Amino acid sequence: MIESLALKLATIIKNANTEETHSIEVMKYSLAMLINIFLVLFASFILGILTGKLLETLQAFTFFFIIRSISGGYHMRTLVGCFIFSTSAFVIVPHIPISPFWANVLTCVSGLLFLIYAPKSHEQNNIPSQFKLLLKSVSVVIVCSNILIESPIFALTSLLQGILLIPKGGELHEQESC
């Protein structure tokens, strides 16, 4: 669904300007990423309103988006899978009650996961080695700043992203699709 819409848009753009545009495949990929992010944000927004946790849902989305941009991580095989997983996570996280103590515990566990596994490089973003330590450090500092904030949403979101950094096979694999 998302890929077919991205392909149609990429084809329209290419036909409008064949000389100054990238290949259809490159544009399709970029457009699919943008469409998916927009759909996740839109669905999270609507579900956040319906569940009475709009601000908290948007906090989960924003924090995840920022930390994932810096640390990388494994991705779902399809954009639809990414949409379902991401939207569900952003909507469910605000409804999980945890105390400040457990927020700090989860933050420390997350900090360790980021220290060990971030950044997660893969074929499409092949991070140069000189930037890996910087990205790891920034990731750990952002995650561990929650020790001061004690936000349950940030703690749970950090843990989720930390888990997505752990090498695994099977249903998740390294690709830039979510």
Poorly predicted regions: 170-178
**Shape assignment:** globular
Strand content: under 5%
Tally of helical segments: 8
- N-to-C series of helices and strands: HHHEHHHHHE
Structure keywords:
178 residues; mainly alpha; two-stranded antiparallel ribbon; globular
Question: Could you give a quick summary of the protein structure above?
Answer:
The chain has 178 residues and is mainly alpha-helical. The protein has helices spanning 2-16, 24-51, 54-71, 79-92, 100-117, 129-144, 146-149, 152-163; strands at 75-76, 172-173.
Structure, explained:
The structure is a single chain. With 178 residues, the chain is an all-alpha fold. Helices cover 70% and strands 2% of the residues. The C terminus is likely disordered.
Outline the fold blueprint.
Layout: H1 2-16, H2 24-51, H3 54-71, E1 75-76, H4 79-92, H5 100-117, H6 129-144, H7 146-149, H8 152-163, E2 172-173
Helix pairs in contact: 1-2, 2-3, 2-4, 3-4, 3-8, 5-6, 5-8
